[in-house]
């Protein structure tokens, strides 16, 4: 009996399943292409509307109620302040929590509760964190609508992402590396510091990139913390008031004059450039650390 006949006899529905698999494959590819086409159309529309409004004064001027004079200097510097402080607050605490949970924490019911809560917090809507930051940092701790209150709120938003990604990166380090380190007489702390973290650093950097990418585009928490959109100064202190690019873009979109649609599109282009630049720098650092860990 030929092999094809034997296969058909043992699996009478094999041909049907193959056809269903081929149809599903085509449907999934079409869905991906449709999503990419929609994204490309959106980007092209933004570029078409915003490119005429891009100029040097758009980057160096402050917001204005007149489209010809509008710029986003204060929003750009406010975003840089927020992202810098968010990374400063988030990365050490998030990576430290991941190291503790993976390397030091006992495996008991309390640890499992913490892990479940961290996973749940990663899926909480961003506006909830904005209201939490408004209640705790702005009102309870009397920080006001300042840069540090916004940065702490964004840290709460992205902290679960950093912890989860860092834990996965640490978990991916082979246990044989730890055993070899212990065999050479290293302590637990030395093994974590000199063996585990260097090999997990590329994955940790990837998680940090994703977390900061989410933070830079979030408007809802920042609207709850700071609704200021017409700042005529650059924040120079963590206790200064601030605005960020998503808030400024949201404000321009809500303006009745049609010229502000083009201004908002130009703001979106600047936001994308800043986001891609941050990602490019972080990816470069990640690749360098990955090469060093493999040597």
Structure, explained:
The protein is mainly α and 295 residues long. The protein folds into 2 domains: 14-53; 56-294, MetI-like fold (Orthogonal Bundle). 76% of the residues lie in helices and 0% in strands. It contains 12 helices and no strands. It has helices at residues 3-10, 14-50, 56-60, 73-104, 109-121, 126-140, 147-171, 175-183, 188-216, 220-225, 245-253, 259-294. Helix 6 (126-140) crosses helix 7 and helix 11 (245-253) packs antiparallel against helix 12.
Core attributes:
76% helix, MetI-like fold, 2 domains, mainly alpha
CATH class of the largest domain: Mainly Alpha
The first-to-last residue Cα distance is 55 Å
Shape: globular
Uncertain segments of ≥5 residues (pLDDT<50)? Answer: none
Largest sheet: none
Query: Helix- and strand-based class?
Result: mainly alpha
Number of domains: 2
CATH third-tier fold name of the largest domain: MetI-like fold
Assigned CATH architecture of the largest domain: Orthogonal Bundle
N-to-C series of helices and strands: HHHHHHHHHHHH
Q: Report the β-strand fraction as a percent range.
A: under 5%
The share of residues in helices is over 70%
Computed CA radius of gyration, to the nearest angstrom: 25 Å
- CATH superfamily membership of the largest domain, which one? MetI-like
Number of strands: 0
**How many helices does DSSP assign?**
12
Integer average pLDDT: 83
């Amino acid at each position: 009996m030929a092999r094809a006949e034997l296969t058909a006899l043992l699996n009478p529905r094999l041909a049907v399943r193959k056809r269903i698999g081929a149809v599903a494959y085509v449907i999934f590819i079409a869905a991906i292409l449709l999503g990419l086409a929609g994204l490309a159309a959106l980007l092209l529309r933004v570029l078409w509307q915003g490119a005429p409004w891009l100029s040097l004064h758009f980057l160096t001027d402050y917001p204005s109620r007149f489209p010809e004079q509008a710029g986003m200097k204060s929003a750009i510097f406010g975003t840089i302040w927020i992202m810098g402080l968010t990374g400063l607050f988030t990365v050490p605490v998030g990576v430290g929590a991941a190291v503790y949970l993976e390397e030091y924490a006992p495996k008991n019911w309390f640890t499992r509760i913490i892990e479940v809560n961290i996973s749940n917090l990663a899926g909480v809507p961003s506006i909830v964190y904005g209201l939490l930051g408004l209640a705790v940092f702005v009102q309870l701790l009397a920080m006001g609508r300042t840069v540090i209150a916004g940065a702490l709120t964004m840290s709460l938003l992205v902290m679960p992402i950093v912890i989860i990604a860092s834990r996965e990166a640490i978990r991916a380090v082979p246990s044989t590396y730890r055993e070899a380190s212990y065999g050479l007489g290293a302590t637990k702390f030395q093994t974590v510091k000199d063996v585990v973290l260097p090999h997990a650093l590329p994955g940790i950097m990837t998680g940090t990139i994703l977390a900061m990418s989410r933070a830079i585009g979030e408007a809802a928490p920042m609207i709850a913390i700071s609704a200021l959109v017409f700042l005529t100064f650059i924040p120079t202190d963590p206790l200064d008031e601030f605005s960020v690019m998503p808030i400024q873009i949201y404000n321009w979109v809500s303006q009745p004059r049609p010229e502000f649609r083009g201004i908002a599109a130009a703001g979106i282009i600047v936001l994308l450039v800043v986001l891609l630049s941050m990602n490019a720098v972080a990816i470069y650092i990640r690749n360098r650390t990955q090469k060093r860990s493999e040597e």
